[in-house]
Amino acid sequence: MKILVIQSRMGIGDMVIFLPFIEAISRKFNSTVSIMVKENSKASEFLSENECIDEILYLQRDKTKNSRHNGLIGTINLIKDIKKKKFDNIFIFNSSLRFNLIAKLVGAKKVYQYPLFKKKGQHIIKAAQSFLKENLDISIESNPQIKIKEEKIEEVKNKYNINNKNKNINLLLGIGGSGPNKRIPAEIYIKFLNNCKKEYDLRVFLATGKNEEEQKILNQIIEKKNNFNFVRLDDLSIKEILPIIKCCDVAVCNDTSFSHFSAALGIQTIVLMADTSTLYGNYSPQMHPIIPDQINIDQLSLAKERIDPEKIFIVFKKILTKLNF
Hints:
Blueprint: E1 3-6, H1 12-29, E2 33-38, H2 43-47, E3 53-59, H3 71-83, E4 89-92, H4 97-105, E5 110-113, H5 124-136, H6 150-159, E6 169-174, H7 186-197, E7 202-207, H8 212-223, E8 229-232, H9 238-246, E9 250-254, H10 257-264, E10 268-272, H11 279-282, E11 287-290, H12 309-322
Parallel strand pairs: 1-2, 1-4, 2-3, 4-5, 6-7, 6-9, 7-8, 9-10, 10-11
């Protein structure tokens, strides 16, 4: 049986969130599935080894005029691209009439989709859970998991001298962010690290992108290093970073791809929530959200300034205590 799952939301976080639901479909039909996602989901970077997924197709729709799936001609191209794969079943994780018509025109035997025209106010997780419960009678918890091959983990341990004899704590610091209101100021990370220094020996893995503002935050943290052992990850690919994250003991991240990755890799993750729905910081049992102090809807632009480093440290200590550090 050939199955296609269409997940058209943007971003890495959304892709991670949908993993349990995609895998549940695969298990229900005892078959691998193909997924169609947007390119900025970076799916191939972290799902190429997922045993439930046999192919990753990209929905090529963006602001450029030449994008293959844009407009009326793009819809025709999309129909052609899907039809040649000869899928038996198609699952559509959205309420789009466009995708409904496309799925019917490609000749799939069975099409499963969210209720049409109900996108407004749709809860990303509850909608997916209801969808699978109503159509396949399966109940799924929101606890995404990304698997890493053991040999890749061992390579990282050897490269960075991570072992039981080395008593330092390996901390992932995810300091990137997809928007300016999500990027927590360097000073907050520095104050948190200075609190840690009083009680713990840390090795700090700094994860961020190449955006100018993200690089500025990274450099400000390193300039105030105070004898911390920093390891920069910004020159590595997602595939290279994932086994490093897996070897960390704790993660402290803003709402960035690294918070989703670390939680899905089973790492206890403190998520610094600024201009983002708390849903993206508490959907996994590995996540521990920190919200800004005394903030309301009219002050979201100030939220990132009001994350309390002391609160981060308190949660950090509690996690380490449970981990027997």
